[in-house]
Amino acid sequence: xxxxxxxxxxxxxxxxxxxxxxxxxxxxxxxxxxxxxxxxxxxxxxxxxxxxxxxxxxxxxxxxxxxxxxxxxxxxxxxxxxxxxxxxxxxxxxxxxxxxxxxxxxxxxxxxxxxxxxxxxxxxxxxxxxxxxxxxxxxxxxxxxxxxxxxxxxxxxxxxxxxxxxxxxxxxxxxxxxxxxxxxxxxxxxxxxxxxxxxxxxxxxxxxxxxxxxxxxxxxxxxxxxxxxxxxxxxxxxxxxxxxxxxxxxxxxxxxxxxxxxxxxxxxxxxxxxxxxxxxxxxxxxxxxxxxxxxxxxxxxxxxxxxxxxxxxxxxxxxxxxxxxxxxxxxxxxxxxxxxxxxxxxxxxxxxxxxxxx
Length: 358
Known about the structure:
Layout: E1 3-5, E2 15-17, E3 21-22, E4 29-38, H1 41-47, E5 57-58, E6 62-70, E7 82-85, H2 95-98, H3 107-111, E8 117-119, E9 122-126, E10 136-140, E11 144-146, H4 153-159, H5 162-173, E12 181-185, H6 189-200, E13 205-209, H7 213-221, E14 226-228, H8 233-241, E15 246-251, H9 256-265, E16 266-274, H10 288-294, E17 297-300, H11 308-320, E18 330-335, H12 339-348, E19 353-357
């Protein structure tokens, strides 16, 4: 079958090969024919080494498709079922799951160290234990979440990561209050979803911050009340909050420099929500006096900060009701053979989300 492979960490292009085989099928597993997958910035971060991932590997973790086959012991799924892929399934028995913090379950991360594919030259891993830039994947049954027939594959794929992450940051983690002032730094697919979440929660002002003009324009369509370039943020802070700072600031870039800016843009007693996935050697510096004196809440948000299955259901319900726009997030579509075009669209900021149709 065909799949897009990164041979070595640090390479900036993928090679689409037709000699890749999905492996590991057996009890408790399912085989999925991937129909659509989104390109998430985490895929690029894994390619360049910001996020740890063994290589060679097939990127992609934001996907949807159809069940082709089920292994022994799988009773909740059958061939033909339409599913989205959950790259962070809950095991249900670890301490995090028992506390109700299923988004912190580590079972899915352990899958990242087991090869999902093979080629004549050896094993190939799947990013985050999935690897959706492929025609087929084999995953634990818990990674395959059934979707209703009226949810298109491309919409379901977005719900599998970016939408859940952004909406959840505003709704579950920060719990934005009605009438609040909000700034969102970084307005790709996740940032736009955070904007939609803040709007749903009743925020009065939502300032979108991004260096790319087309993304700023898009943010206004999705609920931002104002959109500014990074160097215009201090002026927006002064005009909108009289210099005090925003009630809630979302950092959706994953860099210490923007996190520091976000901290400084948050009012005393306000909430800074860290959504972007950054590198292990990139440190955010805060002095102990400001940490004590400003009493700003710093809340990291992992995969939307809540039960992912419930978050999927909520996103579908909001989409059906017309309360959130998911189709508008997809600004580009390419076949698997155009994956490197999709990567370029993301790196330049041209795309909010590119759908790879497989």
